[in-house]
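ugh ok fine here u go
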Amino acid sequence: MSCDQHSLQISRRQNLADYGMGFTGLAMGAMLAADRTTAGAADLATAGAAGRTAGAADVTGSVAAPRAKSVIWVFLSGGYSHMETFDPKPALNRYAGKTYSQTPFPNPVESPLHKKRFRSVPSEEINIRDVYPTIYPLQVGFRHHGESGIAISDWWPHLSRCVDEISFVRNMWTTDNDHAAENQIHTGRHRLDETQPSIGAWCSYGLGNLNENLPRFVVLGGPTRTDTRESIDSYYLGPQFAGVPLQLDPNNPLQFGTRQAGQTAEQQSREFALLNSLNRLTAERYPRDQQLQARMQSYELAFRMQSAVPEAVSLTQETEETQQLYGIDDDATRVAGQRLLAARRMVECGVRFVQVFPSSYGTWDSHQKLKENHAKMCRSVDRPIAGLLQDLKRRGLMEDVAVVFCTEFGRTPGLEERSGGTTGRDHHPNGFTVWLAGAGLRKGFVHGETDELGYHALGDAHYVTDLHATVLHLMGLDPHQLEIPGRRRLDIDRGQVIREILS
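structure:
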């Protein structure tokens, strides 16, 4: 079942009450955030936009000074090859066609890091992923760019002009070698373990509102499938902190959130008031029902969102020059461009966390025809993501917004040989690259590395929750203090801030 088909089978009542984008959840989130906001917290009122409110998170009684007010988290589903994007490895060309043992480098499969960063769901005996021994050459050239001289592949002609704004982290690793890693990059947990709230949900839980008419956590283009809902979900934090998927249709941006045909605003207002009165009667019988308490506050917010959300997603208000900057004038880049431009509008309106899926599920998954696939996919997002960085900079938003650009894992240095394959790479959790830019981050900087063949993340390499910890830190939150009574988090869930990339 596709994501759209699944959505159509959800009832209006269920969607409003229980889904992450439900108004019930949004209202409850606003109340809880207000309860956690302290007068002594860092003042964010300088945001200055109409409708914003001052406040910063104070979950446990203390809060760090925030470096960023909002996050745009860009996720590319399927696993892009780190070697053909942001971590070029010329040794792959020198030793193409040879096995790992035929190079002067230690065989990476024999490294203890291999088992440490590889957790197979099928038995090890039948799962041969990640150990293909024949080295596959780079499928694209690369150059060094900018004053920083950072090397990225030739498939990023627009982004290459922005490298002096970016911090690259080349020593990321994860454990899931299948596409459940899409959830893992967002929740920090392997699919065999207890699910945790997503990074966007933690930000939503920990932060106060900047705009009471919009959700704190918005999702554009996702979740990519019903089984990737974990990537935007909030679990034990409560549905009020989950991501709110929006469509880029000003006439119907929020499913079930549009006033019914023939109903006036006054009629709807009276309807909400009646529902609120009925809910209050029920609340007297169930005073500890937080979901019900949230529902009592939800309809007023729903009413306000009907005006705020369509305006926020309306790209027609943008100049032709701005739309061209994001590539909206080109069929190849239009979808990614629209979503990233909408993300900029969202953070400009005060949304705290915007999770963007520029492409559909698994489109970067290049088991075969990697050259053809990556050339196409890089083109689809290169101009839009470069346009986002340029647009944020010229609007002065790079001091307020942190941009994260990531995928679920890298791809193997070895040629994938399953089913006689000759043109692709398999999934690779042992080492890959992400990058960040904007508020509180170093510019034109590379942190960490993989080995000469791009196999293992070296040094004090970073599990995916280190990326989470860094984002939370930029937002003024301490991941070690985000706690829910009765829910014990592991050290790996909290992660460690990647301090090397902080400005």
